[in-house]
């Protein structure tokens, strides 16, 4: 497990690079956090660290945004918040995408937890009393 602290938005690019180093060759990263805690901001910083210059933000309505990184290959950003069940996720093809070999960053991962691979990297973000973001990676 690794723990990081982002005191401000200026720290997010450094957290993103540390996270990329930590995940190594694993492809699926699941994010757990309350609404407004910074999941999309952190994932956007990770995408930029992967060489994706203009990430589109959260794919809340489209479910997934797909990108091509010159360094990492295909990269997908999921936001499964609007899915109501595991069956709905399976019908939408989430399982196939998670096992496609692409890098997958999943917001609201608790919804699709049974579909996640055994080697998934889990990221938990909590907001400290002073507004810091406490990021646990395991």
Structure description:
This protein is an alpha/beta fold and 138 residues long. The chain has a single domain, classed as P-loop containing nucleotide triphosphate hydrolases (Rossmann fold). Helices cover 25% and strands 30% of the residues. The chain has 4 helices and 7 strands; from the N terminus they run βαβαββααβββ. The protein has helices spanning 12-23, 39-49, 86-91, 94-98; strands at residues 2-6, 28-33, 64-69, 73-79, 103-107, 121-127, 133-137. Strands 1-7-6-2-5-4-3 form a 7-stranded mixed β-sheet, covered by helices on one side. Strand 6 (121-127) and strand 7 (133-137) form a beta hairpin. Helix 1 (12-23) packs across helix 2 (39-49). The longest helix has 12 residues, at 12-23. It is globular, with a radius of gyration of 14 Å. It starts with a strand and ends with a strand. The mean pLDDT is 95.
Quickly describe the structure:
The protein has 138 residues and is α/β, with parallel strands linked by helices.
Write the layout of secondary structure elements.
Elements: E1 2-6, H1 12-23, E2 28-33, H2 39-49, E3 64-69, E4 73-79, H3 86-91, H4 94-98, E5 103-107, E6 121-127, E7 133-137
By CATH, the architecture is named 3-Layer(aba) Sandwich
Percent in helix: 10-25%
Count of alpha/pi helices: 4
The N- to C-terminal Cα distance equals 4 Å
**What sort of overall outline do the alpha carbons produce when their principal axes are compared?**
globular
Q: How much strand?
A: 25-35%
